[in-house]
Amino acid sequence: MVRVYLSEADRLLHPLLAKLHDEENVRGVTVFRGISGFGKNGRIHSSSLLDLASDLPVVIEFFDEPDKVKTIIKHLNTIVGPGHIVSWQAELNE
To answer: Using an 8 Å Cβ cutoff, are 62 and 20 in contact?
Structure first.
């Protein structure tokens, strides 16, 4: 199981989704758009009714076989850089 933490301003959502879907053929992907959050720099990103252009947190979550996930993470590291990817072992009910 992998989570990739971004913000809307990173403009990486669509390229990463295309890579995961078209090139990597992962088993499942979900994208979450946060209403508030902050990262390493401490700058708070949040939504309000006054915001027209948002820079909200975005989380891409996906899963697949462990060996495949390791390879995908290596590819993603060249795109998103350090500190944005979290992964852990998960069990799929089949």
So the answer is: yes
- In the chain, the domains with their CATH numbers are 2-87 (3.30.70.120)
Q: What are the tens digits of pLDDT across the range 16-65?
A: 999 999 999 999 999 998 877 777 777 777 766 555 456 788 999 999 99
- Cα–Cα distances in angstroms (integers) from residue 39 to residues 26, 27, 69, in the given order: 27, 28, 24
Whole-angstrom distance, CA of residue 2 vs CA of residue 19: 15
Residue 11's pLDDT band, with cuts at 50, 70 and 90, is confident
Asked if pLDDT for residue 89 goes beyond 90, the answer is: yes
In 3-state terms, what secondary structure has residue 39? coil
78: tokens are 């060249």
Residue of 56, 65, 58, 2 whose CA lies nearest to 29: 2
